[in-house]
Amino acid sequence: MTDSGTLAGQVVAVAADHAGVTLKDALADDLRAAGAEVVDLGTRGTESVDYPDYGAAMAEAIAAGRAPAGVLVCGTGIGISIAANRNPAVRAARCANTTDARLARQHNDANVLALGARTTGVEVAADCVRVFLTTAFEGGRHQRRVDKLAGR
């Protein structure tokens, strides 16, 4: 994640449950069009699936280094973010607007953005993704807090 304003060359994992798959696919298309490499962790259709499985898949991808950042989508963004945050390598932030997305990166060094397909329109979601992925962590006074989240 950079503050250069470009997504070209970034590797971004995406995952969603059945409620979020349409938004996930639209966001993945936007990311590819912007030059990002997308690691799609599923789901692929609208048949009912369990969001914890996709939150865990994202967490595993982040922890293993397959992608430094990710985007999760479920109906509200809440359940899937809770699932991802069970892994200490993940700092998933459920965001509803670009201010949330910017501050999640600047102050919390969030590495996963969670969105609600039933609560956030596609344009707002796309703006959140762009801001999230192009905003740098400020460090400084925020670093000690992030270290505490990591148990350091």
UniProtKB/TrEMBL annotation:
Transmembrane segments: none annotated. Gene3D superfamilies: Sugar-phosphate isomerase, RpiB/LacA/LacB. It holds the Pfam family LacAB_rpiB. This is Ribose 5-phosphate isomerase B. Keywords: Isomerase. The keyword Isomerase applies. Belongs to the LacAB/RpiB family. GO terms for molecular function: isomerase activity. PANTHER family: DNA DAMAGE-REPAIR_TOLERATION PROTEIN DRT102, RIBOSE-5-PHOSPHATE ISOMERASE B.
